[in-house]
Design a protein that fits this description.
about 120 residues; Muramoyl-pentapeptide Carboxypeptidase, domain 2; Peptidase M15A C-terminal domain-containing protein; globular; Peptidase_M15A_C; single chain; Zn_M74/Hedgehog-like; 5-stranded mixed β-sheet; alpha+beta; 5 strands
């Protein structure tokens, strides 16, 4: 199922094979719409490199936070070929400051960036 021009629902499915529950479709759509803005800004494809949605069991197995935004399909771990996680994070910050992406959580890791749509600023 296509969510936006460049993102499909399948990309956000849990890595254990579980599909995103229908009740979380509004969340995953909002994440995809925000990532679409980032993709347009960067002019490069965005890869859901880690997790989109996670089941509670899978979240525990990967050491996710007990109240992780991934549990409600409100987050995505992303990478972009040719860009460092810091470069991706800087682009997200710029777009948030310009009011083009939703304020939320962002964590910069060695190989990816976590972005979520919690609505309040959280950084790690």
């Amino acid at each position: 199922m296509k969510l936006t021009q460049n993102f499909s629902l399948e990309e956000f499915n849990c890595k254990d094979g579980t599909t995103v529950p229908e009740k979380y479709y509004p969340n995953v759509l909002q994440v995809a719409e925000n990532l679409e803005v980032l993709r347009e800004y960067l002019q490069r494809p965005i890869i859901i490199s880690g997790s989109g949605y996670r089941t509670k069991k899978h979240n525990t197995e990967v050491g996710g936070a007990p109240k992780s935004q991934h549990l409600t399909a409100s987050a995505a771990d992303i990478s972009v070929n040719g860009l460092s996680p810091m470069q991706i994070a800087e682009a997200i910050e710029t777009l948030i400051e310009e009011g083009k992406m939703k304020q939320g959580g962002m964590g910069v890791y060695p190989t990816f960036v976590h972005y979520d749509i919690r609505g309040t600023k959280a950084r790690w």
